[in-house]
Amino acid sequence: VARALAQWFPYRERATAQSFIWLSSRFGGAFAPSIIGGLMLLGGTWQRAFYILGLAGVLWSFLFFVWFRDTPEEKRSVSSAERDWIRSDNVPPVNIAKRKMPWLSFISPNVLALCVVSFCVNFCFYFFITFLPRYLNDQFQVNYYQSQWMSGLPLLVGAAACVVGG
User: Fold this and answer.
1) pTM above 0.70?
2) Which residue, 5, 20, 26, 69, is most buried by CB atoms nearer than 10 A?
3) CA gap 94, 90 in Å, rounded
4) What are the C-alpha distances in Å from 65 to residues 8, 58, 59, 86, 145?
5) What burial class does residue 78 get, using C-beta atoms within 10 Å of its C-beta: 0-12 exposed, 13-18 middle, 19+ buried?
6) Mean pLDDT of the region 114-140
7) What is the DSSP string of 52-85?
8) Rounded CA gap, 89 and 80, in Å?
9) Which phi and psi angles does 41 have, rounded to 5°?
10) Nearest to 94 by CA among 74, 70, 112
């Protein structure tokens, strides 16, 4: 994702683009309980809902593979004006050629700080999408069907925060 953002967005727009990626992941987590619940009502089991969503994922992957290109220069529908706008901030395009990996950079304070932040964000995210429905059921006797929107609400708020925080 970072490479695609670097190739397809001007430097000054990348944070906003990243915020929309995070917004989308929060929306997915927020609406997933209701989507799964609806598919379970239609199909009868969570396994059938799983297969339907898996098939949708395979279809999306195929369509994305056909549509997406690594750089704007490789996509015919991108005009030269659009390419110029993407490259307008005078930051050279990312060279996607194979480079030797600087392994020692993984132990830098910046990378370690990013790992801590990522762990904290992901811990909260996965709590809400995996443990909150069970917690509401066990502690407050709110069954899974009743908790669909409650368990998605923190992720909806998080989606808004992603865009506002940019």
Assistant:
1) no
2) 26
3) 12
4) 16, 11, 10, 22, 35
5) middle
6) 85
7) HHHHHHHHHHHHHHHH--SSGGG-TTS-HHHHHH
8) 15
9) -65, -40
10) 70
